[in-house]
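Hey, I'm writing a tutorial for new members on how sequence and structure tokens pair up, and I'd like a real worked example in the thread rather than a made-up one. If someone can provide the structure for the chain below, I'll link this post from the tutorial.
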Amino acid sequence: MKMNNKFLKKINSPALIIIVIGILIMVNFFSYNIFYRFDITENRDYSISQASKKAVASLKDIVNIKVYFSSNLPSQYLNLRQEVSDILDEYVSFAGGQVRVEFIDPGDDETTKQDLYMAGIPELQFNVLEKDKYQVVNGYLGLAVKYGEKSQVLPVVDSTHDFEYQITSAIKKITSDRLAKIGFWQGNGASPETANSAIISRLNEVYDVAIVNFAADKKIPNNLDTLIIIGPRENFSDEELKAIDDFLIGGGSLVVLADGVTVSQGLEAKANDTGLNKILAGYGAKLNNDLILDVNNGMASFSQGFVTFSTNYPYWPKVVKSGFDQNNIAVARLEGLVLPWASSISLDAQKTKDLKISILASSSERAMAVADNFQLSPQAEIANGPREKFNLAVSLAGEFTSAFSQSNGSGRLILVGDSDFISDNFLRNYPDNLVFLQNVVDSFSLGDDLIAIRSKGITERPLKEISEPVKAAIRYVNIFGLTVIVILFGLARYFLRRRVKMEDEI
């Protein structure tokens, strides 16, 4: 043992340093020639998904991506160019030469500025701190994706939050031979162009979107893939119901966002009987005329005199992670969905036994249904009642029986017991609700390709409910944990040094 220690001490220090330097040089050399990025984030937020890789790997011709970033942008955008470049580099890597990226600084070139204006990329104004004072500078943060004669524009790229989704959806849109067609029902109190412009705009990025005015046209277009009905308030005639029934039985996808109870601005509630249950019940689903209260709920703002205040509001049930169907990719990665004044949905086990059922969203097990004597004031006392879990959004797929005849046909239906959650006014406070409906439509119209990309950018991470013993354990670990670790480290070093000293004496 003594001889070995003497041998170790004879090692030439300069030689050891040279060996270490040589190893570092070799590691550095291989790191430049063999490059691999490790993305250890839960949702792989900094790597493009398989859907994006597949989209560019199958390109038949070259896609040109021109990024118009000005060089005089404020400091907060300095890293944005690099982040955008890194993501686009991955597209280039997996495209086999079919994707070309070019960064362009428009500068003061008036011709380029005019071309960008015509393309829909605006010149922006930024406040820049220079020489101890703020100045206004003009610049660009836009992007254009081109494929032959087709082009898709991203007017402003101010973050990489959903950048991959926007690029992949743009590529899919301009390279597809046929876009899936989405129709929004106009009439019966439903006015999507006025109340739901945000979702129409988002879906228009990927699909061919149309307004279906049955009262004027007396038909639903034959080339429609998905029909969306949002917030009807008036009765459907038998002619309208039969047209909707024929559409579903004929292989269409039907999305119904309807309220079992309508609530006015004065918080007055009344049952909303539109007649849709005539066909929905035939398929095995029924929208109930009730309101769901839940201990998991969203924040609502109310005015009282000249005072506006916000409070947790039981009549706005909030669906958390455990309330989504974890086997359905459209909702499995969502973290939250707030449904104001939502109604429950009942399923007929006999009529749905041969259908594929997915409970897209459900309340907690501590929710309660109120079917009359609605007391919607935030100060109102909540009456006691049975607590249970309620279906708030369901998906049915398979062979449906017509509500007007004995004919059958394969179709898909989604029923959500609320329509306010996707209104433009509500989305200002709960923008993640948009992701829910986008995913639902994508699952019908495009399959699962874009869902995984969009769901990567989850913005809400609610705290999970934990028991009191676990809370106490976490509290004591926070208080005493670091002290115990330091003591253990000190003891370990003490015994290690003592051992080394005894070995040297031997």
